[in-house]
Amino acid sequence: MTESVIVIDVGSGTQDILLYQPGKNLENCPKFIVPSRTQTVAAQIRKATVQGDEIFLYGHLMGGGASAVALKQHVSAGLKAFATPQAAVTFNDNLSLVEGMGIVLCEAAPQSATPIWMGDVDTRSLKQALEAFSLDYPLKAAVAVQDHGFSVTESNRTLRFRLWEEFVLQGGDLRGLVFTQDIPKVYTRMRALREIIPKAVVADTGTAALLGIMADHYVKPHLNQGILAVNIGNSHTLVAAIRGERVYGIVEHHTSMINIESLAKLIQRFQMTELTNAEIYEQGGHGATLHPEMRPGWDFVVVTGPRRSMAKPLNWYEAAPYGDMMLTGCFGILAGMGIA
After folding, report:
1. Is pTM, for the whole model, over 0.90?
2. Do 80 and 170 belong to one domain?
3. What is the DSSP letter of 137?
4. Axis crossing angle, helix 66-76 with helix 37-51, rounded to the nearest 10
């Protein structure tokens, strides 16, 4: 790669940003850890709520989470909320359910409403931040977002895990989930990102985290024997059995629903290939899928993610590719592009 790339890993709490500059050690490339866009939008909604203002949400489909909570509180306070259909699908793929939340769908902002822009990446703010340090904004961008997939009838957690299951059964090549050209229609959040940055390389945050773990120099020698990669994020915990370049099994849960005891049990049952999709789903997680060729083992466990401290008593290896755990996803995207 001979050109600079801005790499952005969009999480529920933070967006982790790396300005890749060719010819420079990755450790010395500029880095930013800042609040994610859903946190920023949530703060704007809460400010309007306190001031008693109506709001108008416009722009693009993006991650919900904090912004969805703030929106519900705004409506519960008896204040009106308007949204374009393009922005409203942030809160549910079924727009009739969005209207059921008390959101009024419209294309233009009522004069009385405070406009709030929706989108996973605010390029204007990023350009201002880079310019403040005399840095040029790159022509090339690569972004990871968590995309549950689009379905009007199927729940997000069911659809998201069905997509993971298909991926495992079809060969489990993570680099095939780093999209440099066409994006499958089901991934509407990634496609919305392309509306903001038309030629961006895009991937799921889970894909980016796993590729980042694999890029850790201490982990690489263990890949031939197989590893269990654990990413404990602010919202989701993802576990994958990886041997060589292939994923043999995946488990995805909600971080808020697990603790050290349940996590240790989950890992043990996964190592023994005894874990079932039903038990994870019934606990409130997304699910578990194991390829028929997966065998017991997977003793080398690697952990990363902003909530990794939960696993410290388990003495797993803490991945920090290029010395920076918070940029694991960014380094993973670069690896998927054939750079890191």
Report:
1. yes
2. no
3. P
4. 10
